Amino acid sequence: MTGGSAHAGPPVPFPAGPDRLDGMKLELRGITKRFGSLVANDHIDLTVEAGEIHCLLGENGAGKSTLMNVLYGLYQADEGEILLDGAVQRFAGPGDAMNAGIGMVHQHFMLIPVFTVAENVMLGHEQTKLGGRLDLDGARAKVREIAARFGFDIDPDALVEDLPVGVQQRVEIIKALSRDAKVLVFDEPTAVLTPQETDELMEIMRGLKASGTSIVFITHKLREVREVADRITVIRLGKVVGEAEPTATNAELASLMVGRSVDLTVDKGPAKPGEAALVVEHLRVLDPRNQLVVNDVSFEVRAGEILAIAGVQGNGQTELTEALLGLQPRVTGDIRLDGRSLVGLSPRRMLDAGIGFVPEDRKEDGLVAEFTIAENLMLDREDEPFVKYGTLQLNTLAEFAEEKVREFDIRAQGIGTHVGRLSGGNQQKVVLARELSRELRLFVAAQPTRGLDVGSIEFVHTRIVQTRDAGIPVIVVSTELDEVVALADRIAVMYRGTIVGIVPGDTPRDVLGLMMAGEHPSTAGATA
Ligand SMILES: Nc1ncnc2c1ncn2[C@@H]1O[C@H](COP(=O)(O)OP(=O)(O)OP(=O)(O)O)[C@@H](O)[C@H]1O
Ligand SMILES: [Mg+2]
Question: What distance in angstroms lies between residue 525's CA and the mean position of ligand 1's atoms?
Fold first, then answer.
């Protein structure tokens, strides 16, 4: 159990009654959903049997989230119908879907951070006791009961904001189950989880299945699919293109998803590193709670090499990259790029100094949802060629945006589409397209392929290697060992705010795993 601040309540007896609920069969028939001229779902048929884990696979923008939003009553289908145990349903909103037994575990931020677990679970379907008081005790008991059923270690009175992401996700699960959800939808739940949390979620899904719950599971990680799926449906460009068996290979699944064969290993020659371009010395970062989240970190990145920063989420990587970009207020130590100190520069000046940055949280730091694709592509670049004599050069911008949309395969109606309307993966591509088309002296990418489909990962990895080969120093922060191993020339492993060691790019994964748990490279078996 990873819940650092989630303490178990008093022991609760195992709930009475049958363990196995009656399952429910879900059928989507001919679901069509259009947004203007764009057909996001084109006559999609999907059947999920009671008590099965059904994986929905498809490239970025294929229409997976849209289909699930239709199922959850957030969108109305233009055509088609939803059946539960053979009966046609009409969902005017999520309330109807919930009442019919559909639950959705949102990726994040659907909970209210300053409320407790029990309050969040109660929210939206408040049970009132006689006299009109909210039944918080009832909600607490419900949380304990469901938590006990699945072996979660959750304190009903813990504040949600104090819980790690993985535990917050369990609160979402409890919330859905407290409304007797019989079909649970997980839309990319593992994108933000640590490997351990992911394994635990897989266990939870198996437990749900054993108790009769049907699950629709969306992920881009093929390993996870093969691990838990009973059946797999693949959609592409809004249409079902096929079903696959969980025994299918990664390569088979990948080519079914993107409609071509995908090179799952990065084509990367040896690095030809030059001088140390970025030099970081004794960097310390204090967080708002006065914790030393980056503790005396020193490293160099040479021109033309990729330094990967590996580690379990939350070991200071985020704060480290933010410090490099001037986004952390309380920083000591030195950061020099090409001999020039960067400490104290504003983020704006950092960008002007030629630093490309892909932030970990694109919604918060990377994009303006209400702006169009074109506008987002020119953020922080309000100078030539886009602005001349104080006037925005619309044609230049349009040409540039069209080119980037093609090059990065950003799926949208057009460059005038608001970024908030794009699928998750396509939003990420907008950030990458913008940052990789600056004139760069340093490229820092945090979780660059989070949420991307396998085809897009191949493309982005290739672009990152090309950036290196153009002689630019590159830092890739990733919690995905696959990504670290694929890209790194050298690997720095972070643990509790420090770098436990910097090792060659071909260091075996088990050694990296030990280092990620805090072991020194020499005892973990690495050649430093
Ligand atoms: N509210 C909306 N308005 C306009 N277009 C939308 C809206 N929601 C989704 N779309 C479009 O519908 C298409 C399907 O998007 P969807 O989010 O369903 O993709 P997805 O399969 O979930 O992709 P990803 O793997 O990137 O999350 C995309 O082209 C997207 O831009
Ligand atoms: Mg999606």
Answer: 45
